[in-house]
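Attaching the record inline, Q. Sequence:
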Amino acid sequence: MDVDTIDERLALFRAMADHAGVDLAALSAAVPQEVRAAAQRCLGCRDSEECHRWFETQEETAPVPSFCRNAGQFNLWKAE
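Structure, as predicted:
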């Protein structure tokens, strides 16, 4: 994985967290190990192309897609 891909994946991670209504900055201070684990899941994801397509067509109110490896984590963080 080259640096551009890592940057791209982390940008997708931040964008999906924003879409889910999750404040990564606050979570990074409170539960940094959980945020690091979620970022690692995103880095290892093989669906980045699908993620890009989803962001191009998603609606503002659309839930985090089921193919997202962090969908459950985002939902849990949002509920807390």
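The radius of gyration is 12 Å. Residues 3-79 form one domain.

More tomorrow.
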